[in-house]
């Protein structure tokens, strides 16, 4: 009997790629996504890749009754992978209450349902932003968490603390918190990828949209940081490597009922690159010259961070397979594939044309 996994945020960038990986590794999947920041068409891409139609519950996870109804209708839910959240660092600085309300209410409702319906396997989409501006890099899971540099990072710190409290009180629920670094790239099929609903905020889609002409220019948010070339340092991780980490995390908690029922892992490539180096890698891999200029620093940005991913390698058996070149080439292929997407960014309409 296949184990049924509920993926919240299943139409999103990481959610859709994770559903593909879960299905390819023998899980059955349902999704919950209100498409406030994602397109329903992404699950059609998942269907094209896996041959499986994914049922999506278009509910507001900030509404407890709507969230609860999913669990009531699917009493066989074996585990939950919780992605549904807003994730733009810069936007969170401008709209903190939007982030607290959305990211924390939805998490709270899902956690209440885990307990009520005795769903004992939980993977939480956390973030390297929980470390704030680290004193030393690379960061390990034991690196002290500084003050979050943005409200987004604070929602992830608070989310982790909520899960730790639940794990302490309820030993039946096994939780894994995956601290993502910077997801980028697209599935090798080019049938799913990153699809910002509005103007992109993350570096990789800004690069590809500038390259294809959707954006006039890329603004580098600051070149006066205390780093080798003055731009911020990040750890780009291929979306498919990140997706597979969720499958391995689920396997780990299902196969190893841990005495520690609350685990955290850094999921990053383990290599730090600067914004300028990312731009250079894109240009070298695609032959496309990017139009960029230097702008002001972006409030909420961490100066430099990248992962020590040894713990995930040892305990989850996870290791990144894709390279920075794979990230840039797959992201560019995806951007070219969607270049004529209608403005409402609904992949279904795009595919029917
Ligand atoms: C990266 C760097 C910007 C856009 C992301 C996710 C967050 C979390 C951590 C998962 C920064 C610079 C960007 C632009 C730029 N991941 N930049 N011009 O802020 O590290 O956070 O990874 O949880 O969810 O959002 O990613 O891609 O926004 O920025 O110069 O137009 O690129 O200043 O130094 P960030 P990002």
Bound molecules: UDP-4-deoxy-4-formamido-beta-L-arabinopyranose
Strand order of the largest sheet: 3-2-1-4-5-6-11
Distance between the termini: 39 Å
Look at the structure and give the CATH class. Alpha Beta
If you average the pLDDT, what whole number results? 94
Molecular shape? globular
Measured as a percent range, the helix fraction is 40-55%
Poorly predicted spans: 348-353
Assigned CATH superfamily? NAD(P)-binding Rossmann-like Domain
- By secondary-structure content and strand pairing, the structural class works out as alpha/beta
Number of domains: 1
* Largest beta-sheet details: 7 strands, parallel
Fill in the CATH topology.
Answer: Rossmann fold
**Count of alpha and pi helical runs:** 12
Radius of gyration, in angstroms, nearest whole number: 19 Å
